[in-house]
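FAQ

Q: What does a record look like?
A: Structure on top, sequence underneath. For example:
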């Protein structure tokens, strides 16, 4: 199965005020199973794909459209499902050094992704709070307060 990702070469980055664009490129097929990994080959392949999706999201979060974010989230969910399924047969086994190193690298990719997603969510919350505050201030200009109704009735 071929996965797709956005080509994120920094030299091709659009101007900050340019509309978001992404160019989809095919990611290579997973490498053939490596006997050095033993039974962990499926796990290594799942880690490869998950790292690719996380790197794409981490690098492009602020430039992706809503539809692209939904697709990226779908792909991330599929990668996590694949990862979980690949981990089941390994639960009772001793983890090889190669797999342990790959899991450490994946942990770093997840931490970087989490930091970027958290920053993005905080920015969204701040913007939403500002908009809500402006709407509330506009709606509460005194026109519809109890004091205004009393003054209108007294006239």
């Amino acid at each position: 199965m071929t996965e797709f990702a956005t080509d994120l070469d920094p030299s091709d980055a659009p101007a900050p005020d340019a509309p978001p664009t992404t160019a989809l490129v095919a990611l290579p097929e997973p490498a053939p199973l490596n006997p050095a990994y033993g039974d962990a080959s499926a796990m290594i392949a799942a880690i490869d794909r998950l790292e690719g999706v996380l790197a794409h999201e981490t690098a492009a979060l602020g430039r992706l459209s809503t539809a692209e974010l939904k697709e990226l989230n779908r792909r991330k969910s599929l990668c996590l499902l694949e990862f979980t399924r690949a981990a089941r047969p390994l639960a009772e086994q001793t983890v090889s050094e190669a797999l342990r190193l790959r899991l450490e690298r994946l942990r770093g990719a997840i931490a970087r992704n989490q930091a970027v997603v958290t920053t993005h969510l905080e920015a969204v919350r701040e913007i939403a709070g500002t908009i809500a505050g402006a709407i509330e201030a506009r709606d509460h200009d005194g026109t519809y307060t109890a004091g205004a109704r009393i003054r209108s009735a007294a006239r």
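Q: Is there anything notable about this one?
A: The first strand starts at residue 4 and ends at 6.
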